[in-house]
Write the structure tokens for this entry.
Amino acid sequence: MRRLVQVLVMLSVLACAGYAHAQDRPRVGVLKLTASAPIFVGVEKGFFKEFGVEPELVYFQAAAPISTAVAAGQIDVGATGLTAATYNIVLGGEKMWIVADKGREWPDHRLTAIVVRKDLYDAGVRRVTDLKGKRIGITQLGSTFHYQIGNILEKDGMSLKDVSIVPLQAMAAALEALRGRQIDAVILPQPFPGRAEADGFGRIIAWGGDLFPWQIATVFYSRKFAADRVRAVNFMKGYVKSSRHYYDAVLSGRQGAAYDEVVAITARYTAAPEAVIKLGLPYQDRSGRLWVEDIARQMTWWQRHGFIKATIPLKDIVDTSFVEAAVKAIGD
């Protein structure tokens, strides 16, 4: 009888251990954007759960605070844009790892747009060079939008000194500032540009990827999460599978039921109409592989403009081994 009790206890312990593993819930910082579609799809369709992971999504209003939360250990994973804050945190001695692609500005793929007030558009403000002297809203100084508009202006022979950059902290606030005519233009990701046009107070004059392709968003791990190799790779397996589903459904050009499902899921998570979501779903690598060289280019620009004191060797901030381990495990 005692032996039977021992066996039953052991089986109970093992069952509980298996359940605990299945319930691994890393905290993942995200924004309610179309660029987060692969994360949303992975949660909804169980791609993460397939590998014992159930992400707890933590929503933020801007990208930089996600980097801060990862560094502070408040969340395990960040899935958002690369900002000057990300590099400054690492330069300050904290460790976090950029590990996967989460969205690129890419030609013919709509992610971030320059939107001007409709009255200014009607008056002839329709090109980047027409922005000279205008007030352009962004979320924060050192944000992805700051980097992007700076590079777009430079490509057209201008600079940040030719415009007035207005930091408004959050994307929703920037959109409302455009609606209220407190600014002349704004640079924001979908679904915000679509909302401005749908509500009739803004007009898109350019999509960022057509003007300046770059690795705008990534997945990054906290020091502690990256050190737990099993958890980190299991999360990445789910992410790679989610990324592939997103790519095949949205980016392969074969629109159908799978595309409609991705749109519906993204609309539900972002609280945007499906018609707005369809205006722009961004590009990313099918298996979540990074455009590593572009990260070096970004650091060089930030340093030149005084936002970071030095560049960081890529080996000290980028770790592609998690993606490669995940791809190896689930196959090409």
The first strand starts at residue 27 and ends at 30. Residues 4-21 have pLDDT under 50 and may be disordered. Residues 229-251 form the longest helix (23 residues). Strands lie at 27-30, 56-59, 77-81, 96-105, 112-117, 135-138, 164-167, 185-189, 202-207, 214-222.
